[in-house]
Design a protein that fits this description.
232 residues, TolA/TonB C-terminal domain, two-stranded antiparallel ribbon, 5 strands, 28% helix
């Protein structure tokens, strides 16, 4: 068998391992990586969009000096009020024989009483409402007729709407008790009710007014009320 001898250099080449080859190529990989990283960073700095910071500044208002109010002196508390003294009942002797003289017509005769007051304007009472002296006021004699007149003269429009009111009317009454004049003293605020009250006033009949024993003409005020009657 012919066996050729293998040179020593060839044997050494055949014994090179992968680790040896990696160590031999490390330099090229290192510098290639450094060049690629440099190129990549250059491109990032060159082509990356420019960024600007937002304006986050703020302004503060100018401080104003406030003048403090002057100090107020608080007055001292009031002195305590002294308690009232305890009341003491006084001892007084009363005579049991004290009497009051009786009042009789003999000592005060009727003949010496002052005359009845007479109004200075008796002759012109019809001119307008005035105070008229009287001792006996007139009274209504025909209440049923007045109630019927209230129902008759009550404005239908207001009655159906449930609207009522009160009218104060001046009456000028004659010596016979008839109504000589009538005028609105206090309005109800509704013209329809005021006019209706004057219509009802013509129906009134009174007893004569007296000033002592004398029959006189008088002005009096009478309230006339219009209201819706509730169904029983």
């Amino acid at each position: 068998m012919n066996t050729k001898a293998i040179p020593a250099e060839a044997a050494a080449i055949n014994l090179e391992t992968e680790n040896d080859r990696f160590k031999r190529s490390f330099g090229s990989w290192f510098w290639g990586s450094m060049i690629a990283a440099t190129v990549l960073h250059f491109m990032l700095f060159q082509f990356w969009p420019t960024q600007t910071a937002a304006d986050l500044s703020f302004t503060a208002e100018e401080l104003k000096l406030i003048e403090l109010p002057p100090e107020i002196e608080i007055p001292p508390p009031p002195e305590a009020i002294s308690r009232p003294a305890t009341p003491v009942m006084a001892v007084t002797e009363i005579d049991d024989d004290i009497t009051i003289a009786p009042t009789t017509f003999a000592d005060n005769p009727v003949d010496v009483l002052p005359p009845p007051p007479i109004h200075e304007g008796d002759a012109d009472l019809s001119a307008g409402p005035v105070f008229t002296p009287m001792t006996v006021a007139p009274e209504i004699r025909n209440r049923r007729e007045v109630e019927a007149a209230l129902l008759r003269e009550y404005p239908v429009l207001l009655r159906n709407a449930g609207i009522g009111g009160q009218v104060v009317v001046w009456f000028f009454i004659s010596e016979e008790g008839t109504v000589l004049d009538r005028r609105v003293s206090q309005s109800s605020g509704l013209t329809l009710l005021d006019d209706a009250a004057l219509q009802v006033a013509d129906v009134f009949r009174f007893t004569p007014a007296l000033n002592r024993e004398r029959i006189v003409q008088v002005w009096i005020e009478v309230p006339i009320t219009f209201q819706v009657q509730e169904a029983p």
